[in-house]
Structures are given as C-alpha cells and as structure tokens.
Amino acid sequence: MQSFYDRFGLRKVINARGPATVLGASRVKDGIRQDIYDMLGLSVEMWELQRRANEAIVKLTGAEAGVAAGCTAAGMAISIAATLTGDDMGKIKELPIIRGPKHKVVIQKGHVIGIGDTPANQLIRLTGAEPVEIGEALDCASYHLEAALTPDVAAAVYVMMDVFPPNLLPFDKFVEICKSKGVPVIVDAAYDTDFRHSIAKGADLVVHSGQKWLGGATSALVAGRKDLVHACFLQELGIGRPMKVGKEGVLGLISAIEHWLARDEEAIIRQQEAFAERFIAAMAEVPGLTGSIKRTRFSPSVRVVMEIDEEQTGVPAWEINMKLGTGDPVIKMDDYAVYHGKMEFDLSFLDDGDERTIIKAIASIVEEKKKNGGAVRQPEPMNRLDLQYHTLRRWLDDNPRA
Ligand SMILES: *Cc1c(COP(=O)(O)O)cnc(C)c1O
C-alpha cells in the first residue's frame, strides 16, 4: 500500500530533534487529532472558544487569564503590542504607529535569538516598538537593566531557554528590577515544560508553544495579567489579524492541555528509558560513538547525547549530521553542539526500531568514508544555519538536498 508520505511525494522524516517548527512541530496524538477533526467540521463563536481556552490556560499555568495565539512568535508579537496599546481600540488600530510616550522594548543582547527563526529584535520592531539591547553578548548586569528602564519603556522581554551563556541576568533578578520600575515582563517560554514557573516568578505575560511539547496544532498560549491578556485578544482587530489563530488551533490547544494534565508521565519516561538503553547499546557497536542520558526542563523526554570521536569514526560530527539530514529517510536531531562533536536525540517522536535505522545510517556513513577515503570530495563544513539555508534557498529547484 502507498504510504502517506508517498502519496504526497514527501520524504519520510525520523524526528529525533523534538517538536521543532521546521519539522512540522509535534506529532499530534490521536485523541487531540480527533478533537481537531471534529472542530473543523463545525462552526463556533471564536470569542466563546477563546473563553474556554482561557479556562484551560489558567488551569495549566496558574495565571489570572490566558488566550490562544497563532504560534509563539505571534504570541510574542501580540504581547508586545498589548503593552503598547492596552485595550485602547484607537491605539490598536494605529499600530505599528505608536501614539504616546512608551515605545521601547528592552531585551538582553544575549537573548536576541531566533524567536523560532525570526530574530527577536525584528519581532519587536514588527509592532512598531524600538528594541533596546542591553549588556553584551555574554554578560548583562543589573545596572544595564536599571539604566535602560526609562519612562519610555513599554515592556521587557526575557527568553526562557538553557542555551544561553551563564552570565546573563537570572529571571528572578530581571523581574525584581522591572517590577521596581513598573515595567511589564514578557517571557518567551516556547520550549519550557514547566508551565507554572514564569507566572509563579512574576512574569506579566508568558508565551508557551501549543504545537511543541503540548502537542496541539499550530498555536501558542499567552498567559498572565488579565488586563494584558484582554489586550492581546483585541490585537486581532489590528496587527494581530495576519497572525490569527483558527478554531482548529484554539480547540487543539484546549484538547492538548487536557491531555497534558492527564498524561501518565512515569509510564512515558519508563518506556523512553528502555528505548534509550537500546539506543545507547546500539551506539556502542560503532567505534567512536558513545551515548549518555540527559534530562532537561526544556524537554519532557529522556534525551540521548551522542559523542562522536572523530579520530575513531574518521568522520566529524557535522558531516554525519549533514548526511543524516539529507538521506532517506531524513534523520534530524538537535545539532546545536555539533561542532563540539555532540548530537542530542530527543526520544519523544521516535518509534520502536528507529534507533536501529539511525545507527545503521551512521554506520554506513562511517563505512563509506573508510572505503572511499580521500577519493570523495570533502563537503564544505556548514554550521546549522548555513545548512538550513543551503536547502531552503533551492527548495523549488531540482534537488535541494544535493
Ligand atoms: C520554537 C520557538 C519559538 C517559535 O515558535 P513558533 O511557534 O514556531 O512561532 C520561539 N521561541 C523559542 C525559544 C522557540 O524555541
């Protein structure tokens, strides 16, 4: 029988990276898919659906209120817009022109990352606000923030991730200083699986992805102060319109929250631990590969870190990564530390047997290199963004993966 992938002319993807937006985010579970399917066949008043989303978000996060948004980047944009306009419809209809003195948004320079793939400062500018980057790439001190919080600042943005240098401002300190100056704090917590943390620590608004760990359709949740959440919802009558969330996104988010709160976390972890053991054992069959287990708040899964000793494999990690990412099936993992000889495999979306497919693919890359040695053309070393662009810029041409 023709597979789904074949029918639509798609290459199969083994996703060990987790719910990355570029890989279609989460593999949505049956119960949630069924709810989305049912919703799509019906009509509904969107405000009422959003009212139910509010209840689910409050239950999940402990915030005063919540609203569903189109995606995390959209949630960040409407959150920033909300701090610029409040619920003043006149102001909402005029963005990105800002009437009134508060037009700046503060962010630590080290936090200017891709909100997804959109640079954080570009996302701030999209609302009409002026980004003010404070500190240096690797450091930010209290005095940087204190000096930046002038009366023309509308909000401060904080990104909740574990990839940052250690000497940026910790969240507690950031919130304390912003509170003392009356500046609302907006948190990008797209990947955070602790849905109560940012609110409990004093965030005014927090944005979590709906299509990443929660496992819904493309969406995000914005949670926080009721007045600001209300103002977020109203942005749909203004700049929020081109980033609006549909009924399938909102319903998917509600259903995903229900499933998240009811999930048997221990059973999932036990199953993933067994998978990790098989995976690590399989790695040991290829000289130069070693696996170990990692847990982080930024994934609910067991993750397996694979270290590649290039002396033994004869192939550097970046080359293995590149070849896995252009093979058939396409195999993707977290390649953030690939230049340090490490690849990280998230087990959430792997099926039993995928561990063998992955190791077999790596073994044949190593084998191939040994056989052909210097005869094959050395590919150019490419970092993760170059690699992504390499394919994307030729997506309509003959063979974008070449
Ligand atoms: C994925 C991600 C985003 C973007 O999420 P989208 O839903 O694709 O807009 C933003 N911020 C962080 C930290 C992310 O990891």
UniProtKB/TrEMBL annotation:
This is Aminotransferase class V-fold PLP-dependent enzyme. Its cofactor is pyridoxal 5'-phosphate. SUPFAM superfamilies: PLP-dependent transferases (SSF53383). GO terms for molecular function: transaminase activity. Keywords: Aminotransferase, Pyridoxal phosphate, Transferase. InterPro entries: PyrdxlP-dep_Trfase, PyrdxlP-dep_Trfase_major. It comes from Paenibacillus residui. PANTHER family: L-SERYL-TRNA(SEC) SELENIUM TRANSFERASE. Gene3D superfamilies: Type I PLP-dependent aspartate aminotransferase-like (Major domain) (3.40.640.10).
